[in-house]
Amino acid sequence: MLDLNEKLTIIFHNKTTGDYENKTLYLNQFKEEYSHSVNFDNNIDLYIGFKKPIKNFYVHLSTPLESPIEILFEHSTQNGMQTIKDVYDETHGFSKSGFIQYKELGSSNFTVADIKCYWVKISTASTDENELSFCAINMLLNSIYDLSAKYPQIIQEDFFLGKASLHVAIENARNEVLSKIIRKGLTAESDARLTVFDLLDVQEIREAATFLTLANIFEMVSDNADDKFSRLSKSFFKKFEASFNLYSLTIDKNQSGDGASQNFQVKCARLLR
Fold this sequence. Notes:
Jelly Rolls, 7-stranded antiparallel beta sheet
């Protein structure tokens, strides 16, 4: 079920026809039940909106581009859409899935297709036919490449658990990590329930989420309590516990999207499984 508190608004704008396609309900979850194909050229703008400024999100491409393209990132300010500088694009121009991160924050919200949000706009000057398919745009705590760095064989199809990729397992681990943080009593502004977009620095929890994802995958593929995968699951879960028990979190308590003076040291009791 889609968590409405974490819902990004996702709109494709065809500048030639003037049409706006709202794909919010289809591209927020990593369930791989839907994809949106588009010829991403200079006629298309992709708008990603949220109720507050955000500075990172994850793009899951079911059909990435064969070669990277140059992408322009902009965000909404009091002076209209302005270029975001120093973007760290792990998708490498939509040639693979990955995080998109930057430090600058949009300073104003406005209306696109009758929806008022803080917006990030993604576009390209390319006139080539760049056919690609988006599967999901939202936030995760780690990536497939984090998993393969810890266990290279994890990208083999045997570990996909009947899915098209490992993104569903990564999303499930994200939800589990967030639930554990919430149970520690951390909240957002006015004691609102914490969401993944309230964690302002994914690097603080990225390794722990990677270990938990691997532990969960190996637990699922294990046939018995003594086989190789069961041992791997237990080993990675211990690594998750060690990483999770020693961390600080930069939490967006004032809902500004800015991490200044919002760092909290979190002491965690031992987690039982």
